[in-house]
Amino acid sequence: MRFFISAFVIVLACGPALSEEPASSAEAAVKEHFKDFDQTWAKHDAKALAAFYTEKAEIVTESGQTFSGRDGIEEALSQAFDNSLKDSTLTVTVQKIRMIKPDVALVDSEAQIKQGDAEANTLHLLTVLVKQDGKWMTETSRAISYK
Taking the model in full, what pTM does it have? Predict the structure, then answer.
């Protein structure tokens, strides 16, 4: 179960579309994407969540498991939502955004996945978002556990 939890906390997404805007506007859009992703997670719709990723995206869990490509991420999410993450909630809190370029953001965040009355599993995420066709998309995300 911990595997699936950490695997999908990584599934951090992309934000609203932006044109070339000041960093503060881009940062606001990046923060908004986490809110959108949390709301999509609540629906447990693997296809909708996978749409937050680039075609060649990659996520790495805290245990080192890798999921590659939008289709691979969707398949893994679908299996998790049918099993260990069926009734889970996700809350992502952005801690720091570094705009590498106007269309590339490096994001540090804390993600909490909660299942019922159980204690939330908390992970640190390091995520690279890229802007494609006016939308922020997750290119890669890595989960880190500090426990």
Answer: 0.82
